[in-house]
Each structure stands twice: as structure tokens, then as C-alpha cells.
Amino acid sequence: MIKILKVIATIALTALIGIQFIPTSRNQSDVVPVTDFINNYNPPKEVASILRTSCYDCHSNNTNYPWYNKIQPVAWYLEDHVSHGKEEFNFSEFGDYSDRRKKSKLKSLLRQVEQDEMPLDPYTLIHSDAKISESEKELLLGWVNKVLESI
Amino acid sequence: MKNIKSILSVMLITILTFTVTSCRDTKKEDDNGMDHDDMEMEHDDMDMNDSSMNSAENKGMTQDKSASDAIVTNYLEIKNALVADNTEAAASSGGKLVSVFEAFEVSNYSEAEQKELKEIIENAKEQAEHIADSPVDHQREHFEILSKDVVDLIAITGTNKTLYQDFCPMYNDGKGAIWLSEIKEIKNPFYGSKMLTCGTMQKEI
Predict the structure, then answer these.
(1) Tens-place pLDDT, residues B55-70
(2) Chain A residues touching B123 at Cβ < 8 A
(3) CB B188 within 8 A of CB B201
(4) Could you give the CA distance from residue B28 to residue B36 in angstroms, rounded to a whole number?
(5) Chain B residues within 8 Å of chain A (Cβ atoms)
(6) Is the ipTM of this complex over 0.90?
(7) Chain A residues with CB inside 8 Å of B149's CB?
(8) Helix, strand, or coil (residue B157)
(9) I need a labelling partner for B37 at 20 to 30 A (CA). Which of A17, A25, A94, B112 fits?
(10) In this complex, do B123 and A100 lie within 8 Å of one another by their Cβ atoms?
(11) Does an H or E element contain B205, and which?
């Protein structure tokens, strides 16, 4: 019995070490594109900081990776997560969206943050600084509302 | 005397025939052109809208208003599912609507219209995708955006169906929201059974 467990443990460990060598693509970019949301709408400093810490990791072309992202299978999980997040709403490409799409995206942003659906719970569990407090929420949503009305 | 009588009756019949046929002609024209009601509205506005009326009439001749039929049908399915608080039915109609948007052919329209249509469809398709894959509250949020898209789309493509544009003043934090319905009676898709008859009819499309 112990022998079998030992074999299983060895196989699992080898697999775990093995997958560390599989490369993943990283979502990082040094250039801030002209289509970037913060670039285009010049939010107040606090709002820009909320957007960068709480939204940009998954919804822009530049993720601020945590150290554990170097470890598999965490990296895969995050890769998938970020690519889905960007597909839904990419702040880096906001300027390329049609006005119609800009409005729908901001409307959804307002609703998701208002209802505490975003940022996602598993994300804020690890990134406690990404949690949006009630006062931050008010600040962010008030400003986004103004942007929405201006489009 | 007899002669005069017969001449009079011949004249009367001629006039009657004339009236009847001309009536029929105008009716035919109406059918070829725009909706009957729209036509009357344009007449009320008198000459000012003459040019726009002509272009709209031309559009009616060369373009097929039924192009939007599948979109409208699936949209109304989602609407009715939300009225009935039926999340699964709304989701499955949302899925169907995604493929209908993908299949929509824009090449029959002018360049400016194509650009507008592509933007509408890109946005509307995303809303349909979310409706296909969300709990009921989210479905309603995306249905609100979708409704605006479908209204704008129909403004370009036209539709054979009689639709009513309804307004719910409460939804969206009191900013209000519109939806389209095939019936005159108010059945509110944003709140379903909670507030079924809340809302007003804004206009007939």
C-alpha cells in the first residue's frame, strides 16, 4: 500500500516539475498605446490608480504579474483568465472601439463594479490591494458615468 | 329624357370606377413603399420630407425588408422569455440570435449604412452572447443594450412586422430603458412578473 502511494507521489512530482518547462506567453508591454483608456480620458490620479490596480491586470495589454505566476499550473490558469478578460474588455484598445461599443462596455463596467461582480473574488482574495472600497467605488463610478455621458 | 338618364348613369359609373381604381393604386403604392402609417405621417409633414420620402421609397423597392426578420423574431423570443422570467428560454434564443447576427448580409446597403450596421451587429452580437450565458439579471442588462441596437438596425433595414416601442422609466437606475414588442399591451421584460404591466408605449414602428 505504501509502495503504491510512493509511486503515485513520484509520478505526480515528476509531472509537476516537468510542466514547469512548458513556456507560456506573457501579457506584458512597455508601450502604452494611443488607444489606451487612461491615456485618452485623463482620469483624476486616484481613479487612474484604481483602474490600474483593480482592472488593468486582466483587461489591458499589460499585466503586473505576481511571483507565483512563474509556477505551473498557476501560469496557465492566469493566461486563460487574462485572454478571456481582454476579449471582453481591453482598456488598451478602448480607443479603437466604436462609440456604440464604448458605451456598452462602460455601462457593463458600471454594473459589474456596482454589484461587486468585478474585480472577481478569487483575484481580490490574493490581491487584497485590488479590492475596491465603497468610497473608491463611488469615485470610480461617478467619473465613469461622466465619461459615458460624454461619448 | 331617357338619353340624359343613360348619359348620367354612364358618367356616374365612370366616376365610380375611376375612384375605385385610383384608390386601389394608391394602396398599392403604399405597400410598395413604406408602412401605411409612416406614409400618412410623411404626408402630414407636407413637402419638407419629400426627398427623404423618395429615398425611403427607393430603398423599399431595391432592398428586402425581410432581411431583418430573423433578427426581430429571435429578439422577440428573448423578450417574451424575459417577460416570463424564463432564463433558459432566453439563453437558448440568445444563442440563436448570435448565429443570426453572424449570418446577416450587409453588402446590399450603402457604404455608410454598412459601417453603421457592422458596428450595430458587432455590439449586438456580444449582448446576445451574454444573454446566452448569464443569470436573469445580467440577461436583462444586456437585453437593454440589445434593444437599442435592434431599434437602430431596423431604422436602416426596415421591417415587415408591426412593432411597438415601449418605455420602462424605472430600469437602469431610473434612467429608463426601451424595448420592442409585437403586441400593444405592455408586458415588461426588464422586471418580468415583478412589474409586468409597468411602462408606456412610445410609438409604433
Answers:
(1) 444 444 446 788 899 9
(2) 98, 100-101, 104
(3) no
(4) 10
(5) 119-120, 122-123, 126-127, 141, 145, 149
(6) no
(7) 100
(8) helix
(9) B112
(10) yes
(11) none
Mean pLDDT of the A67-73 span: 79
Mean pLDDT of chain A: 90
Residues 6+ apart with CB under 8 A from B78: B90, B93, B94, B97, B128, B131, B139, B143, B146, B189
C-alpha cell at B47: 413637402
- Locate cell 516537468: which residue? A18
Which one, of A107, A63, A52, lies nearest residue A85 by Cα? A63
Domain boundaries, chain B: 2-62, 67-204
CA-wise closest residue to A127 among A75, A52, A54: A54
**Residue written as cell 409597468?**
B198
Q: In this predicted model, what pLDDT tens digit does every residue of A104-142 receive, in sequence order?
A: 999 999 999 999 999 999 888 888 899 999 999 999 999
Give, as one character, the DSSP assignment of residue B105. Answer: -
Q: Which residues contact B128 (CB under 8 A, 6 or more apart)?
A: B78, B94, B95, B97, B98, B101, B142, B146
Q: Give me the torsion for CA of B86, B197, A108, B68, rounded to 10°.
A: 70
Locate B161 and state its grid cell.
412586422
- Residues from chain B contacting residue A107 (CB–CB below 8 Å): 141, 145
